[in-house]
Automatic annotation (TrEMBL):
Protein name: DUF1653 domain-containing protein
Domain of life: Bacteria
Annotated DUF1653 domain residues: 27-90
InterPro entries noted in UniProt: DUF1653-like_dom, DUF1653-like_dom_sf
Organism name: Alloscardovia macacae
One Pfam family this sequence matches: DUF1653
């Protein structure tokens, strides 16, 4: 799989079946049910890996960071066989 950042600020991942990307200033639902707001995309200074900076929309509203490849990855259906989503994070309209 390959990743890249385009000029619109979206990190992309191309897989076998479809291309996915992260949209900044959008809300995503984690497969376990909570909602998150993507604040920004960043680059890890050591590895140059694309990172997603996102905020919890519940609890303390904490700020988190995760590699874009992981943010865009499918749910591990072996570990979570009852997951109702295909992707770890899916964009939602509120």
């Amino acid at each position: 799989m390959s990743e890249m950042s385009d000029t619109r600020g979206a990190s992309r991942m191309s897989g076998d079946a479809e291309e996915r990307h992260v949209e900044v200033h959008a809300v995503y639902r984690h497969f376990k049910g909570h909602y998150y707001y993507v604040e920004a995309l960043a680059t890890d200074s050591e590895t140059l890996e694309d990172m997603v900076v996102y905020r919890k929309l519940y609890g303390d509203g904490g700020l988190w960071v995760r590699p874009a490849r992981m943010f865009l990855s499918p749910v591990d259906t072996v570990k979570y066989p009852d997951a109702s989503q295909k992707w770890r994070f899916e964009r939602v309209e509120l």
